[in-house]
Amino acid sequence: MSRRHTTPTATRPGHPAPHRFFAEYRTLMRVPGFWRLATIGTTSKLAASMTSLSLLLLASSAYSYGVAGLAVSCSTLGQGLTAPLRGRLIDRCPVRPVLRGCLAAHLTATVAVILTVRSGGNATLMCLLAAAVGATAPPVAVMMRSAWRSVTTSTTLNTAMALDASMMGAALIIGPVFAAWLSLSLSPLLPYAVITAMTVTTVALVVIKSPAALAPSTTAGHWLGPLTSSPLRRLLAADALFVMAVTAVDVVLAVYARQEHAAELTGWYLGSLAVGSVVGSFALGTATKWLPRRLLLPALLGLFALGCAALAVAARLSPMAVLMVCPVAGLVIGSLFAVLRTTGGDLAPAGQVTETMSWLSTLDMVGGAAGAALFAYLADTQGSPTALVLVPVLIVTAAAASWRIQARVPAGCAKPT
Fold this sequence. Notes:
Elements: H1 23-29, H2 34-60, H3 65-92, H4 95-118, H5 123-135, H6 140-151, H7 156-186, H8 190-208, H9 230-259, H10 266-284, H11 293-315, H12 319-329, H13 333-347, H14 353-382, H15 384-402
Protein backbone atom coordinates (compact mmCIF):
# COMPACT_ATOMS: atom_id res chain seq x y z
CA MET A 1 0.00 0.00 0.00
CA SER A 2 1.60 3.20 -1.13
CA ARG A 3 1.70 6.27 1.02
CA ARG A 4 0.54 9.53 -0.43
CA HIS A 5 2.82 12.45 0.34
CA THR A 6 0.89 15.30 1.91
CA THR A 7 2.02 18.85 2.38
CA PRO A 8 1.42 20.26 5.85
CA THR A 9 -1.42 22.76 5.88
CA ALA A 10 0.84 25.51 7.16
CA THR A 11 3.11 25.30 4.13
CA ARG A 12 0.50 24.90 1.37
CA PRO A 13 0.14 27.82 -1.01
CA GLY A 14 -2.46 30.26 0.22
CA HIS A 15 -2.20 29.10 3.83
CA PRO A 16 -0.40 31.39 6.29
CA ALA A 17 2.41 29.86 8.29
CA PRO A 18 1.43 29.15 11.89
CA HIS A 19 2.66 31.58 14.50
CA ARG A 20 5.61 30.23 16.38
CA PHE A 21 6.83 31.34 19.77
CA PHE A 22 9.84 33.68 19.34
CA ALA A 23 9.09 34.01 15.61
CA GLU A 24 9.26 37.80 15.93
CA TYR A 25 12.72 37.58 17.44
CA ARG A 26 13.91 35.27 14.69
CA THR A 27 12.56 37.74 12.13
CA LEU A 28 14.31 40.60 13.90
CA MET A 29 17.60 38.71 13.91
CA ARG A 30 17.43 38.48 10.12
CA VAL A 31 17.36 42.28 9.82
CA PRO A 32 20.62 43.54 8.22
CA GLY A 33 22.94 44.91 10.89
CA PHE A 34 21.01 43.33 13.77
CA TRP A 35 24.02 41.94 15.63
CA ARG A 36 25.96 45.17 15.29
CA LEU A 37 23.08 47.26 16.65
CA ALA A 38 22.42 44.74 19.42
CA THR A 39 26.08 44.83 20.43
CA ILE A 40 26.15 48.63 20.51
CA GLY A 41 22.89 48.77 22.47
CA THR A 42 23.92 46.18 25.05
CA THR A 43 27.41 47.60 25.59
CA SER A 44 26.25 51.20 25.89
CA LYS A 45 23.55 50.27 28.40
CA LEU A 46 25.93 48.16 30.48
CA ALA A 47 28.42 51.02 30.66
CA ALA A 48 25.70 53.48 31.68
CA SER A 49 24.38 51.12 34.38
CA MET A 50 27.83 50.92 36.00
CA THR A 51 28.48 54.66 36.14
CA SER A 52 26.57 55.81 39.25
CA LEU A 53 27.75 53.09 41.62
CA SER A 54 31.32 53.34 40.29
CA LEU A 55 31.34 57.09 40.99
CA LEU A 56 29.85 56.55 44.45
CA LEU A 57 32.49 53.98 45.42
CA LEU A 58 35.34 56.01 43.94
CA ALA A 59 34.32 59.27 45.64
CA SER A 60 33.62 57.57 48.97
CA SER A 61 37.22 56.33 49.05
CA ALA A 62 38.36 59.92 49.66
CA TYR A 63 35.25 61.79 50.86
CA SER A 64 32.24 61.10 53.05
CA TYR A 65 29.29 59.14 51.69
CA GLY A 66 27.28 62.34 51.78
CA VAL A 67 29.72 64.06 49.44
CA ALA A 68 29.92 60.94 47.27
CA GLY A 69 26.13 60.85 47.00
CA LEU A 70 26.10 64.53 46.06
CA ALA A 71 28.63 63.82 43.30
CA VAL A 72 26.35 61.11 41.89
CA SER A 73 23.40 63.52 42.03
CA CYS A 74 25.43 66.19 40.20
CA SER A 75 26.40 63.69 37.50
CA THR A 76 22.77 62.61 37.05
CA LEU A 77 21.59 66.22 36.99
CA GLY A 78 24.20 67.15 34.41
CA GLN A 79 23.16 64.26 32.21
CA GLY A 80 19.43 64.91 32.53
CA LEU A 81 19.58 68.64 31.87
CA THR A 82 21.74 68.33 28.77
CA ALA A 83 20.22 65.17 27.24
CA PRO A 84 17.74 67.04 24.96
CA LEU A 85 20.51 69.37 23.77
CA ARG A 86 22.79 66.46 22.89
CA GLY A 87 19.85 64.75 21.18
CA ARG A 88 19.17 67.91 19.15
CA LEU A 89 22.83 68.05 18.09
CA ILE A 90 22.61 64.43 16.89
CA ASP A 91 19.44 65.20 14.91
CA ARG A 92 20.64 68.44 13.31
CA CYS A 93 24.40 68.03 12.94
CA PRO A 94 26.67 65.38 11.43
CA VAL A 95 26.85 62.47 13.87
CA ARG A 96 30.59 61.80 13.76
CA PRO A 97 31.91 65.19 14.99
CA VAL A 98 29.18 65.38 17.66
CA LEU A 99 30.04 61.97 19.06
CA ARG A 100 33.78 62.60 18.86
CA GLY A 101 33.38 65.91 20.66
CA CYS A 102 31.21 64.36 23.38
CA LEU A 103 33.66 61.49 23.81
CA ALA A 104 36.70 63.77 24.09
CA ALA A 105 34.99 66.02 26.66
CA HIS A 106 33.62 63.01 28.56
CA LEU A 107 37.00 61.30 28.84
CA THR A 108 38.65 64.56 29.89
CA ALA A 109 36.07 65.14 32.64
CA THR A 110 36.34 61.52 33.80
CA VAL A 111 40.13 61.71 34.11
CA ALA A 112 39.78 65.02 35.97
CA VAL A 113 37.36 63.46 38.47
CA ILE A 114 39.71 60.54 39.09
CA LEU A 115 42.73 62.81 39.58
CA THR A 116 40.77 65.09 41.93
CA VAL A 117 39.60 62.17 44.05
CA ARG A 118 43.02 60.52 44.18
CA SER A 119 44.65 63.79 45.28
CA GLY A 120 41.92 64.55 47.84
CA GLY A 121 41.05 67.78 46.06
CA ASN A 122 38.25 70.23 46.76
CA ALA A 123 34.89 68.47 47.12
CA THR A 124 32.99 71.22 45.30
CA LEU A 125 35.36 70.96 42.34
CA MET A 126 34.92 67.20 42.30
CA CYS A 127 31.11 67.55 42.20
CA LEU A 128 31.31 70.07 39.37
CA LEU A 129 33.53 67.73 37.41
CA ALA A 130 31.09 64.89 38.08
CA ALA A 131 28.33 67.06 36.58
CA ALA A 132 30.54 67.56 33.53
CA VAL A 133 30.97 63.79 33.21
CA GLY A 134 27.20 63.37 32.99
CA ALA A 135 26.70 66.39 30.73
CA THR A 136 29.17 65.14 28.13
CA ALA A 137 28.22 61.44 28.01
CA PRO A 138 27.94 60.32 24.35
CA PRO A 139 24.20 59.63 23.76
CA VAL A 140 24.78 56.27 22.07
CA ALA A 141 22.10 54.33 23.96
CA VAL A 142 19.45 56.91 23.00
CA MET A 143 20.64 56.95 19.39
CA MET A 144 20.11 53.21 19.10
CA ARG A 145 16.37 53.66 19.53
CA SER A 146 16.45 55.88 16.45
CA ALA A 147 18.67 53.40 14.63
CA TRP A 148 16.26 50.50 15.23
CA ARG A 149 13.53 52.51 13.55
CA SER A 150 15.58 52.76 10.36
CA VAL A 151 16.11 49.02 9.93
CA THR A 152 12.83 47.53 11.18
CA THR A 153 9.33 47.26 9.77
CA SER A 154 6.25 48.52 11.57
CA THR A 155 5.88 44.99 12.98
CA THR A 156 9.44 44.23 14.07
CA LEU A 157 9.89 47.70 15.60
CA ASN A 158 7.80 46.67 18.61
CA THR A 159 9.96 43.58 19.02
CA ALA A 160 13.13 45.67 18.74
CA MET A 161 11.89 48.09 21.42
CA ALA A 162 10.95 45.15 23.67
CA LEU A 163 14.44 43.74 23.18
CA ASP A 164 15.92 47.16 23.96
CA ALA A 165 13.95 47.27 27.21
CA SER A 166 15.07 43.74 28.07
CA MET A 167 18.69 44.70 27.51
CA MET A 168 18.25 47.76 29.71
CA GLY A 169 16.66 45.69 32.48
CA ALA A 170 19.42 43.10 32.32
CA ALA A 171 22.08 45.83 32.35
CA LEU A 172 20.53 47.41 35.45
CA ILE A 173 20.91 44.05 37.22
CA ILE A 174 24.36 43.06 35.97
CA GLY A 175 26.05 46.48 35.75
CA PRO A 176 25.93 47.54 39.43
CA VAL A 177 26.91 44.05 40.60
CA PHE A 178 29.88 44.00 38.22
CA ALA A 179 30.92 47.54 39.18
CA ALA A 180 30.73 46.73 42.91
CA TRP A 181 32.80 43.57 42.47
CA LEU A 182 35.51 45.34 40.48
CA SER A 183 35.65 48.30 42.85
CA LEU A 184 35.52 46.47 46.18
CA SER A 185 37.51 43.37 45.26
CA LEU A 186 40.18 44.89 43.01
CA SER A 187 40.35 48.68 42.68
CA PRO A 188 37.93 51.65 42.57
CA LEU A 189 39.67 52.67 39.34
CA LEU A 190 39.04 49.42 37.51
CA PRO A 191 35.32 50.02 36.81
CA TYR A 192 36.30 53.24 35.05
CA ALA A 193 38.75 51.36 32.85
CA VAL A 194 35.95 48.98 31.84
CA ILE A 195 33.39 51.79 31.36
CA THR A 196 35.85 53.79 29.26
CA ALA A 197 36.67 50.78 27.08
CA MET A 198 32.97 50.08 26.45
CA THR A 199 32.19 53.75 25.77
CA VAL A 200 35.03 54.15 23.29
CA THR A 201 34.04 50.89 21.58
CA THR A 202 30.39 51.86 21.14
CA VAL A 203 31.25 55.33 19.84
CA ALA A 204 33.75 53.81 17.41
CA LEU A 205 31.18 51.32 16.12
CA VAL A 206 28.71 54.13 15.45
CA VAL A 207 31.27 56.52 13.96
CA ILE A 208 32.70 53.88 11.61
CA LYS A 209 29.30 53.19 10.10
CA SER A 210 26.59 55.62 11.16
CA PRO A 211 23.03 54.31 10.61
CA ALA A 212 21.17 56.04 7.80
CA ALA A 213 18.47 57.26 10.19
CA LEU A 214 21.07 59.33 12.04
CA ALA A 215 21.81 61.60 9.08
CA PRO A 216 21.28 65.26 10.12
CA SER A 217 17.90 66.78 9.39
CA THR A 218 17.86 69.56 6.81
CA THR A 219 14.68 71.08 8.26
CA ALA A 220 15.06 73.93 10.73
CA GLY A 221 12.85 73.03 13.67
CA HIS A 222 11.06 75.19 16.23
CA TRP A 223 13.20 76.22 19.20
CA LEU A 224 10.98 74.06 21.43
CA GLY A 225 11.77 71.07 19.24
CA PRO A 226 9.39 68.11 19.71
CA LEU A 227 7.70 69.82 22.68
CA THR A 228 5.45 71.65 20.21
CA SER A 229 3.44 68.40 19.90
CA SER A 230 0.55 68.23 22.38
CA PRO A 231 0.26 64.39 22.25
CA LEU A 232 3.99 64.13 22.88
CA ARG A 233 3.76 66.44 25.89
CA ARG A 234 1.04 64.17 27.28
CA LEU A 235 3.26 61.16 26.68
CA LEU A 236 6.17 62.84 28.49
CA ALA A 237 3.89 63.57 31.45
CA ALA A 238 2.77 59.92 31.50
CA ASP A 239 6.41 58.80 31.32
CA ALA A 240 7.42 61.00 34.27
CA LEU A 241 4.51 59.73 36.38
CA PHE A 242 5.27 56.12 35.46
CA VAL A 243 8.97 56.37 36.38
CA MET A 244 8.00 58.21 39.55
CA ALA A 245 5.82 55.21 40.43
CA VAL A 246 8.58 52.69 39.62
CA THR A 247 11.09 54.58 41.78
CA ALA A 248 8.49 54.92 44.52
CA VAL A 249 8.05 51.13 44.61
CA ASP A 250 11.82 50.61 44.87
CA VAL A 251 12.20 53.14 47.68
CA VAL A 252 9.12 52.11 49.64
CA LEU A 253 10.03 48.42 49.50
CA ALA A 254 13.48 49.22 50.92
CA VAL A 255 11.90 51.24 53.75
CA TYR A 256 9.28 48.53 54.31
CA ALA A 257 11.95 45.85 54.71
CA ARG A 258 13.73 47.98 57.30
CA GLN A 259 10.52 48.82 59.19
CA GLU A 260 9.55 45.13 59.27
CA HIS A 261 13.05 44.15 60.49
CA ALA A 262 13.63 42.20 57.30
CA ALA A 263 16.37 44.32 55.74
CA GLU A 264 17.96 41.20 54.25
CA LEU A 265 14.97 40.93 51.88
CA THR A 266 15.62 44.35 50.26
CA GLY A 267 17.87 42.93 47.57
CA TRP A 268 15.44 40.09 46.92
CA TYR A 269 12.56 42.53 46.52
CA LEU A 270 14.36 44.70 43.97
CA GLY A 271 15.90 41.71 42.21
CA SER A 272 12.50 40.02 41.86
CA LEU A 273 11.00 43.18 40.39
CA ALA A 274 13.89 43.43 37.91
CA VAL A 275 13.67 39.79 36.86
CA GLY A 276 9.92 40.11 36.35
CA SER A 277 10.53 43.23 34.27
CA VAL A 278 13.07 41.52 31.99
CA VAL A 279 10.87 38.45 31.49
CA GLY A 280 7.79 40.57 30.82
CA SER A 281 9.46 42.86 28.28
CA PHE A 282 10.99 39.89 26.47
CA ALA A 283 7.56 38.25 26.31
CA LEU A 284 6.04 41.44 24.90
CA GLY A 285 8.30 41.09 21.89
CA THR A 286 6.69 37.75 21.02
CA ALA A 287 3.13 39.08 21.12
CA THR A 288 3.26 42.26 19.06
CA LYS A 289 0.81 41.02 16.41
CA TRP A 290 -2.13 40.77 18.82
CA LEU A 291 -1.67 44.02 20.75
CA PRO A 292 -3.76 47.09 19.72
CA ARG A 293 -1.33 50.00 19.73
CA ARG A 294 -3.86 52.70 20.61
CA LEU A 295 -4.83 51.15 23.93
CA LEU A 296 -1.62 49.28 24.70
CA LEU A 297 -0.04 51.95 26.91
CA PRO A 298 -3.04 52.66 29.18
CA ALA A 299 -3.78 48.90 29.36
CA LEU A 300 -0.25 48.11 30.53
CA LEU A 301 -0.39 50.99 33.01
CA GLY A 302 -3.64 49.54 34.33
CA LEU A 303 -1.95 46.17 34.85
CA PHE A 304 0.93 47.87 36.63
CA ALA A 305 -1.54 49.67 38.90
CA LEU A 306 -3.14 46.33 39.77
CA GLY A 307 0.28 44.82 40.51
CA CYS A 308 1.17 47.71 42.83
CA ALA A 309 -2.23 47.43 44.53
CA ALA A 310 -1.45 43.76 45.14
CA LEU A 311 1.87 44.81 46.68
CA ALA A 312 0.03 47.19 49.00
CA VAL A 313 -2.25 44.35 50.12
CA ALA A 314 0.69 41.98 50.57
CA ALA A 315 2.49 44.58 52.71
CA ARG A 316 -0.39 44.33 55.19
CA LEU A 317 0.20 40.58 55.44
CA SER A 318 3.91 39.78 55.73
CA PRO A 319 7.34 40.48 54.19
CA MET A 320 7.30 37.05 52.52
CA ALA A 321 3.93 37.81 50.91
CA VAL A 322 5.48 40.94 49.40
CA LEU A 323 8.35 38.86 48.03
CA MET A 324 5.89 36.51 46.32
CA VAL A 325 4.07 39.41 44.66
CA CYS A 326 7.17 41.36 43.52
CA PRO A 327 7.83 39.37 40.28
CA VAL A 328 4.18 39.75 39.25
CA ALA A 329 4.18 43.49 40.01
CA GLY A 330 7.32 43.91 37.92
CA LEU A 331 6.12 42.00 34.86
CA VAL A 332 5.00 45.02 32.84
CA ILE A 333 7.69 47.52 33.90
CA GLY A 334 10.07 46.70 31.06
CA SER A 335 7.18 46.47 28.60
CA LEU A 336 6.03 49.94 29.58
CA PHE A 337 9.47 51.40 29.00
CA ALA A 338 9.48 49.76 25.56
CA VAL A 339 6.00 51.01 24.61
CA LEU A 340 6.76 54.53 25.84
CA ARG A 341 9.85 54.64 23.62
CA THR A 342 8.02 53.20 20.63
CA THR A 343 5.15 55.66 21.01
CA GLY A 344 7.55 58.54 21.57
CA GLY A 345 9.32 57.71 18.32
CA ASP A 346 5.99 57.47 16.51
CA LEU A 347 4.96 60.92 17.77
CA ALA A 348 8.34 62.57 17.15
CA PRO A 349 8.35 65.26 14.44
CA ALA A 350 10.38 64.40 11.35
CA GLY A 351 14.11 64.63 11.98
CA GLN A 352 13.70 64.94 15.77
CA VAL A 353 13.55 61.33 16.94
CA THR A 354 16.80 61.37 18.93
CA GLU A 355 15.86 64.61 20.68
CA THR A 356 12.46 63.13 21.52
CA MET A 357 14.09 60.03 23.02
CA SER A 358 16.40 62.32 24.97
CA TRP A 359 13.42 64.17 26.43
CA LEU A 360 12.02 60.83 27.55
CA SER A 361 15.34 60.08 29.27
CA THR A 362 15.27 63.48 30.98
CA LEU A 363 11.72 62.94 32.20
CA ASP A 364 12.83 59.52 33.49
CA MET A 365 15.38 61.26 35.69
CA VAL A 366 12.94 63.95 36.82
CA GLY A 367 10.29 61.36 37.69
CA GLY A 368 12.83 59.15 39.42
CA ALA A 369 14.16 61.98 41.58
CA ALA A 370 10.65 63.16 42.51
CA GLY A 371 9.48 59.63 43.30
CA ALA A 372 12.49 58.89 45.51
CA ALA A 373 12.18 62.12 47.49
CA LEU A 374 8.39 62.14 47.94
CA PHE A 375 7.84 58.48 48.71
CA ALA A 376 10.85 58.14 51.01
CA TYR A 377 9.26 60.93 53.06
CA LEU A 378 5.79 59.34 52.94
CA ALA A 379 7.09 55.89 53.84
CA ASP A 380 9.03 57.32 56.78
CA THR A 381 6.24 59.51 58.15
CA GLN A 382 3.05 57.65 57.18
CA GLY A 383 4.35 54.08 57.01
CA SER A 384 5.40 52.10 53.96
CA PRO A 385 2.05 50.21 53.53
CA THR A 386 0.25 53.57 53.32
CA ALA A 387 2.81 54.90 50.86
CA LEU A 388 2.33 51.82 48.66
CA VAL A 389 -1.41 52.51 48.50
CA LEU A 390 -0.68 55.87 46.86
CA VAL A 391 1.46 54.40 44.08
CA PRO A 392 -1.50 53.10 42.00
CA VAL A 393 -2.94 56.63 42.08
CA LEU A 394 0.15 57.88 40.24
CA ILE A 395 -0.13 55.09 37.70
CA VAL A 396 -3.83 55.68 37.02
CA THR A 397 -3.03 59.37 36.49
CA ALA A 398 -0.36 58.35 33.97
CA ALA A 399 -2.90 56.11 32.21
CA ALA A 400 -5.36 59.01 32.00
CA ALA A 401 -2.67 61.24 30.47
CA SER A 402 -1.85 58.60 27.87
CA TRP A 403 -5.46 57.68 27.02
CA ARG A 404 -6.09 57.43 23.28
CA ILE A 405 -2.86 59.15 22.26
CA GLN A 406 -2.79 58.80 18.50
CA ALA A 407 0.52 57.36 17.31
CA ARG A 408 1.12 57.25 13.57
CA VAL A 409 2.90 54.38 11.83
CA PRO A 410 6.64 55.14 12.02
CA ALA A 411 7.59 57.09 8.93
CA GLY A 412 11.10 55.72 8.93
CA CYS A 413 10.04 52.07 9.02
CA ALA A 414 9.55 49.95 5.99
CA LYS A 415 6.17 48.37 5.48
CA PRO A 416 5.84 44.67 6.25
CA THR A 417 6.17 42.47 3.21
